[in-house]
Amino acid sequence: MLPNPQNLLNWKAEPEFNAFMKKLIFALIILFFVFTTGYQIIKYRFSPKYSGELVLAGLDEETEVFYDDFGIPHIYAGSAEDAYRAMGYVHAQDRLFQMEMMRRVGTGTLAELLGEDLVEVDQFFRTLGIPKHSKWSAEEWEKNGSLEIKSAVNAYINGVNDFIEKGKLPLEYTLLGHTPRPYNIEDMHGIVGYMSFTFAMAMKTDPLITKMARELGSEYLEVLSVHTLPEHHVIPTHYPERDGKVLTDMHTESLQALLEKLPVPLLEGSNSWIIGPDKTESGEVLFLNDTHIGFAQPSVWYEAHLEYPGFSFYGNHLAGIPFGLVGHTRKHSFGLTMFENDDQDFFEEKLNPANPLETIYGEEFRPIQIREEQIPVKGQDPIKFEIRESVHGPIMNNVLPEIAKITSNPVASWWVYILEPSRALEATWKMARSKDIHEFENGIRLIHAPGLNVMYGDKAGNIAWWATAKLPIRPDHVNSKLFLDGSDPADEIQGWMPFEENPMSINPPSGFVASANNQPDTLSNGTFFPGYYYPGERWNRIAKTISARDDWNQQNIKDLQLEAINETHPLNALSMLEAVNPEAYEGFESALEQLKNWDGDHGLESIAPTLYYKWLYHTLHAMMVDELGEDWFSNFLETFLYIRSVSNLVQTESSPWWNNINTNNQESRSDILSAALKKSLEELKGQFGNNPEDWQWKKAVVLEHPHPLGAQKPLDKLFNVSAPPVMANEESVNKLAFKLNPDGIYSVRSGPAMRIILDFANVELSESVLPTGQSGNLFSPWYRDQAEMFANGEYRPQLMNESLIRNSSKKKVTFKPE
């Protein structure tokens, strides 16, 4: 029998129960206050100081830092030294742990902080030579660096160290039980070295291509795009007339597994385009840049605006680097994409049979140099580690597992970056202070590696693109994607191209310049320079769109920067559909119809990309894993070779890849495609349900920005930053990349690390956005405040107007001299 409701209302609890409830409520209240108070204590202990006064050692005059609504510091100082001293302090306050991770990668000391799991990473970078090169660059900097630039750099370093000594260290140090050592110039060069390494594609690619060439034969390579194909899009070059070296036509104005342990992101690609005055609504230059970098928390760029007499600059800075690699003044703007040039070769050495410490070189023997290094390891004694170098460079067999699977001979890495000291600090200083395009070009000449596409626009109406790098001249017979013969002097580099022959385009007739990591057109000497270039889908969409109209402005150009269309994928899909047996998709005709009518857009409601990428993975896996094995196939999906070769692979009827060498049958293209489609449809049915209308792309896409400590649960819930679904894609302008996989859930691993739009009609109205937020401090209000904006394609201002900044800023720090 059910109780009478009225009886329930009139029920009187027993005295013991009433007492229990009172105690429970009291305990919950106490617990709430304890939790709240504890959180406030922790927050106070670790929160950055964004308001008030601070004494900064070495400061000459009072320096003001205004924080805008998104945490960007606007620094007003009386001199360069004061500005960079304050910059060092505020940069460290927001990004010290990021600096820690970057400098430890570049100096080979990750294991000292994170433990023995990182020893192999330290061994790799030490063998490659980045720590050794950083020390050399620092020594040369101290001997030959400009006094003016050294003064600014040292002020920045002192500002960082002032924060390390007196500021509130971020929570990560407490969790790791570590206190950071002082920052120094060698650390700074180590960070530059790490950045340069992330541009070096040869280590992922050359061992794979060498394996294919040696074990499979040329007929397999012919289906791939080892070199740029005729159907790929190239960046047009337009060389200026020169009087000597002066411009004259200007206006006056397995490795993968190791890399997955890295606690910092890899730089992967980028877009940039600059539209000249004849094609803009304002009649002024329109500048855009979005660098593509592995997603992480914090994201890679730190924005800062510096003002002191004679200098006004808004820039994007790497952790630990004082000068912006991307930025603008009121007169000019510059940005970057990856050149993707081939600046690293592998030489397979032959040992002297009578002396294993010598290599054969022509008719001579050359000694192998050996040095021993000690790797400090957290919680245990240092590990001794031997590094061997041949005449061509460090021998990589012990740290690059793929090499051991190809040859037992020593294989040495010849890499342009480590051949001479870095002058990156001098170059970036000059780039920001250039008065005109002539001075700017003189600054970028100092960049010998990594290869960069440097993009430029100015108030005078100039637009320009330079591929900056020291380009080696290789013998005609050399295929730089294969291991070279270290015993044959005929394979050696023959010299260096003069900078004037590098790819470039200065004020071209088209009215715009654009780069998207694709192959530059022929050099001024008529040759293609080899590299690891993308096929050019992004560049083609950019170029076609810009060419279509002459009224571009800061608003209508956003649709292009946020576009998620790839025109090649629908062509691949149609070709694949034409080859399949209809029985493979019986019952799923509606899904195939959507794929058939796909325009290449990756809209969140779209069904086509969900099916396409699943089908593409199973097709490629069935084609290639029998020849390569699972590990090498996984490596293939990480290389430029995959992106560049997909169309040929899936559309070539006579390819040897179609046959499964592990069966007695002769599999055809139709066999493989049909089986892969059937498998894909069954998996999608199990994953998302029977109705293909439920297979929306947004359900297959995940975006989380991982923190270095987020790999340890439950710290992922604390430090990682999740974002709404995004239009993940391969090679659309708004590139949001993921690795193809059998699971059909795609974690977006990289994308625009910022999106910048600037119209020289009003520089103070320029816009940008970061993937997560400006600060890397968990307790900062700007830790994740831009994550949703970024995912939704929104922008926010890059302020430079002093009156607006002073009047609107709610947080201000005043640095005072001691």
Automatic annotation (TrEMBL):
InterPro entries: Ntn_hydrolases_N, Pen/GL7ACA/AHL_acylase, Penicillin_amidase_A-knob, Penicillin_amidase_dom1, Penicillin_amidase_N_B-knob, S45. One of its GO terms (molecular function) is hydrolase activity, acting on carbon-nitrogen (but not peptide) bonds, in linear amides. Binds 1 Ca(2+) ion per dimer. The keyword Transmembrane helix applies. GO terms for biological process: antibiotic biosynthetic process. Ca(2+) binds at D342, D345. This is Penicillin amidase family protein. It comes from Indibacter alkaliphilus (strain CCUG 57479 / KCTC 22604 / LW1).
